[in-house]
Write a structure and sequence with these properties.
Blueprint (H helix, E strand, L loop, with lengths): L2 H27 L4 E5 L10 E8 L6 E7 L16 E6 L3 H5 L6 H12 L1 H5 L2 H4 L6 E5 L7 E10 L8 E11 L5 E7 L3 E3 L10 H4 L2
Antiparallel strand pairs: 1-4, 1-6, 2-3, 2-5, 3-4, 5-9, 6-7, 7-8
């Protein structure tokens, strides 16, 4: 894809969210369980986050995840930014994959099961809605211990006193290719949502450009 096409996908997702809110978000994403992506472990010493942008086509028939390091997601790198963007497709778990599931953390399983069960049920609350109109996930590079990863959609209880306050979440699993693509037993849930959280990196160029 060309850079302007990627930017259009990100822009159309923003427009779609403004018009359809959380109900629209869950309608589009509920048919997917995860996306796979690659990273360079050496980024860990220089890069703090990978930015995973949600994008959608104008006709709302194609949805993609655009992933780029915070080091390259800035105005200064615009001339060569395209070569640093990778594209991930959203996927649904197969029964075969479920049988090989290695997630044994009850808390993590609960979060993933909420997503699979009924995401709109959890994310529709008025108190939660503005927090769940997500345009970008910020994934800490310190959690990316291999080159290949799975990011599972999940829903967590927010850290507030409100019992019905929930947030969209990602559970990151590192994939060990030398063990027949087996998932590592450790899960990571330290991603941040954009919005609402302010960026801790200098910019999110692909977001601000739109």
């Amino acid at each position: 894809m060309k850079l302007n096409e990627i930017q259009d996908y990100i822009k159309y997702w923003s427009i779609y969210l403004k018009e359809n809110r959380v109900k629209g978000l869950t309608k589009i994403l509920k048919n997917y369980d995860y996306f796979e992506f690659e990273s360079n472990p050496s980024l860990g010493s220089d890069s703090e986050y990978l930015h995973a942008y949600i994008g959608i086509s104008k006709d709302i028939k194609d949805i993609k995840i655009f992933i780029i390091s915070d080091l390259h997601d800035c105005k200064e790198r615009e001339s060569d930014i395209l070569k640093h963007i990778s594209i991930a497709s959203l996927k649904k778990e197969t029964k075969k994959e479920m049988l090989k599931e290695t997630i044994d953390d009850k808390r993590v399983k609960k979060r993933i099961s909420r997503w699979k069960k009924n995401p709109y049920k959890y994310l529709q609350e008025e108190i939660s809605e503005d927090y769940n109109l997500v345009r970008c996930f910020k994934i800490p590079t310190e959690d990316l211990l291999t080159t290949n990863h799975k990011a599972y959609f999940a829903i967590k209880k927010a850290r507030t006193a409100k019992e019905k306050d929930y947030r969209l979440d990602l559970i990151i699993k590192n994939i060990e290719k030398n063990r027949s693509k087996q998932e590592d037993e450790i899960s990571y849930d330290t991603i941040r949502l954009v919005p609402p959280f302010p960026p801790t990196t200098k910019t999110l160029f692909l977001l601000e450009h739109n």
